[in-house]
Design a protein that fits this description.
With 338 residues, the protein is α+β, with helices and mostly antiparallel strands. It contains 6 helices and 17 strands.
Length: 338
C-alpha cells in the first residue's frame, strides 16, 4: 500500500514539474528578444522624438489605452462607458492615422463609433450613439515656420533635463520590442520621497523615433496605472481621404464657434486663487472654489495609486487639494489654507 501511495505521489509531483517546465518553456519561446541597438543618449532620444512628432511622420495603427486610477465610481457618477469619463478610464482600443495632412482617431466600440477627424480646415467629432456630429472650421494657416534642427532640439532638451535633475533622474533603459518594432526606452524616476509615482517610461521607435508607448508606474506596482501604446503600427503613407469626414444622411450637425477675442476677465471671470506646496513630483496644488457640484462631492476624499485629492471646507468656500502624494501629505497642508 505504501508503495502505491509513493508511486502516486511521485506521479503527481512529476506531473506538476512537467507542467511548470512546459509553462516556463512556452514563456521563453513567446518572449520577445531584447534588440541590440546602438547606444543613444536620453537627450537625443527625447529630441528626436519631439522632432518626429513636429514633422508629423506618417503613422497609422491600433493604440491600446489602460487607465486605472482607482476611480470606479466616476463611471457611475457620469453615466455609462459612452460618457466622457468612461471614454478615458479603463481599457480602450483606438485606430489612429496621422500625417502632415491631418489626424484621425476612431474609438473601437461594441455598438457604435466615435471619431475625431482634423485636417487643415476642419475639425469633426462624430458620435454614432447620438447620431450627431460637431464641426469646427479652422482658419487657413500660412506656411508653418521651419522646425528647429535636431541639434538645436537636443540642446534645448539637455537644458530641460538639467532643470528637471533635482526632481527626477532620466536614464536610458534596456531596448524593447513594442508593436513588433525595435524601440529605445527612456525612464524618468522621481527623486521626491513623498510622491506615489514610481517611474515613467517612454518607448521610442528605433528607426523613425516616433513615440510608441507611454507608461506611468506607481511605487511598488509592477503593472502601469497609465498605459498608452501601439499594439500594431505602420509607417507607410496615409491617404489624404482618411482625413475627410462627411456626416451620414439625417445626422444632426452642430457648428462649434471658436471663442472670441474677449479678455480673460470679461469672458471667463477672474482666475481662481491657487496655492502650491512642495516641489517636483511632490508638489501639492490647492485651488480655491466657491462651490463644488453635487455629483462630484462623493468622489472626495480620493486616494489612488498615483495620487490623492481632498476637499477642505471653509465658511464660504472650499479648497480642492490634489497631488501625486499620499492622503497624509495632503492633510499636512490643510491647516495652511485660509
Amino acid at each position: 500500500m505504501s508503495r502505491v501511495l509513493r508511486s502516486r505521489s511521485f506521479l503527481a509531483a512529476a506531473a506538476v514539474a512537467a507542467a511548470v517546465l512546459f509553462a516556463v518553456g512556452l514563456t521563453a519561446v513567446r518572449a520577445e528578444p531584447v534588440p541590440a541597438l546602438p547606444e543613444v543618449s536620453a537627450n537625443r532620444l527625447v529630441a528626436s522624438a519631439l522632432s518626429a512628432v513636429a514633422d508629423r511622420t506618417p503613422v497609422s495603427g491600433r493604440v491600446s489605452t489602460r487607465i486605472d486610477l482607482g476611480l470606479p465610481q466616476i463611471a457611475s457618477s457620469f453615466g455609462d462607458a459612452a460618457g466622457p469619463a468612461g471614454g478615458l478610464l479603463g481599457d480602450h482600443t483606438f485606430k489612429v492615422w496621422s500625417s502632415p495632412d491631418g489626424i484621425r482617431v476612431a474609438q473601437i466600440l461594441f455598438f457604435g463609433e466615435r471619431d475625431v477627424v482634423a485636417n487643415g480646415s476642419d475639425v469633426w467629432y462624430w458620435d454614432s450613439s447620438l447620431f450627431t456630429a460637431w464641426h469646427l472650421s479652422v482658419p487657413v494657416r500660412r506656411a508653418s515656420p521651419p522646425h528647429a534642427s535636431l541639434g538645436a532640439l537636443e540642446m534645448l532638451v539637455g537644458r530641460a533635463l538639467q532643470a528637471v535633475a533635482p526632481y527626477a533622474s532620466v536614464t536610458e533603459g534596456d531596448p524593447a520590442v513594442v508593436a513588433g518594432r525595435e524601440a529605445y526606452l527612456v525612464t524618468l524616476t522621481p527623486t521626491s520621497p513623498d510622491t506615489l509615482v514610481g517611474h515613467v517610461d517612454l518607448a521610442v521607435d528605433a528607426q523613425t523615433r516616433v513615440p510608441l508607448r507611454f507608461e506611468v508606474f506607481a511605487k511598488g506596482h509592477a503593472d502601469p496605472s497609465v498605459e498608452v501604446g501601439f499594439t500594431s503600427v505602420d509607417f507607410g503613407p496615409v491617404d489624404r481621404s482618411v482625413f475627410e469626414f462627411t456626416p451620414p444622411s439625417g445626422a444632426t450637425v452642430k457648428e462649434v464657434r471658436p471663442p472670441t477675442g474677449q479678455k480673460m476677465g470679461e469672458s471667463m471671470g477672474a482666475p481662481p486663487e491657487i496655492r502650491t506646496f512642495g516641489t517636483g513630483f511632490g508638489l501639492i496644488l490647492a485651488v480655491r472654489v466657491a462651490e463644488v457640484p453635487k455629483e462630484l462631492s462623493p468622489l472626495f476624499p480620493y486616494s489612488g495609486p498615483l495620487g490623492s485629492a481632498a476637499l477642505v471646507d471653509r465658511a464660504d468656500h472650499s479648497w480642492l487639494v490634489v497631488g501625486a502624494v499620499s492622503p497624509g501629505a495632503l492633510a499636512e497642508v490643510e491647516p495652511k489654507l485660509p
